[in-house]
Amino acid sequence: MLIHVGDNDFANQIENEKGIVLVDFWATWCGPCKMIAPVLEQLSSEIPEIKIAKVEVDENPASASKYRITSIPTLMVFKNGTVVETVVGFRPKQELEQIIRKHM
Predict the structure, then answer these.
(1) Do the Cβ atoms of 76 and 83 come closer than 8 Å?
(2) How far is CA 60 from CA 3, 54, 55, 93, 95, in A?
(3) What is the CATH number assigned to the segment(s) 2-101?
(4) Is the pLDDT of residue 16 over 90?
(5) 27 and 33 Cβ atoms separated by less than 8 Å
(6) Whether 103 is catalytic
(7) Please, which of 7, 13, 33, 41 could form a disulfide with 62 given CB 3.0 to 4.6 Å?
(8) Cβ atoms 73, 90 nearer than 8 A
(9) Active site residue: 14, 20, 23, 33, which one?
(10) What is the pTM of this model?
(11) What is the pLDDT of residues 39-98, one digit of tens each?
């Protein structure tokens, strides 16, 4: 499942969620963010037991600040509400899938 999350529902959708959530901190003007978007859509359909949440950093500065996002795209894997891995920059689908599966 791929959803868009904002500052108002970040805690409910991600920090309070049981299981694996992959959070993509991104911006509309970011080229690598545009490249990774279709990869995340593919992963959301191929690994339905995880949630993929997209957080637009310009519209949601509180969430970006809380997690000290300084470069985008930044992908964070949350397991039961805790960050277990962080990846900065574009990554190919196979690498992201390996990262997700090792935390399942």
Answers:
(1) yes
(2) 15, 11, 7, 26, 27
(3) 3.40.30.10
(4) yes
(5) yes
(6) no
(7) 7
(8) yes
(9) 33
(10) 0.95
(11) 999 999 999 999 999 999 999 999 999 999 999 999 999 999 999 999 999 999 999 999
Residue 15 has pLDDT above 90, yes or no: yes
**pLDDT band at residue 17 under the 50/70/90 scheme:** very high
**Residue 53 is a catalytic residue:** no
Question: What is the predicted pLDDT for the residue at 1?
Answer: 87
The two tokens of residue 48 are 């339905």
* Active-site hit among 21, 30, 76, 100: 30
Residue 14 amino acid letter: I
| Residue 33 near residue 69, CB atoms below 8 Å | no
The kind and range of the H/E element at 2 are strand 2-4
C-beta of residue 16 within 8 angstroms of C-beta of residue 61 = no
Contact between 38 and 88 (Cβ < 8 Å)? no
Q: Cis peptide before 38, with omega less than 30 degrees from 0? A: no
Q: In whole angstroms, how far apart are CA 41 and each of 2, 37, 52?
A: 7, 6, 8
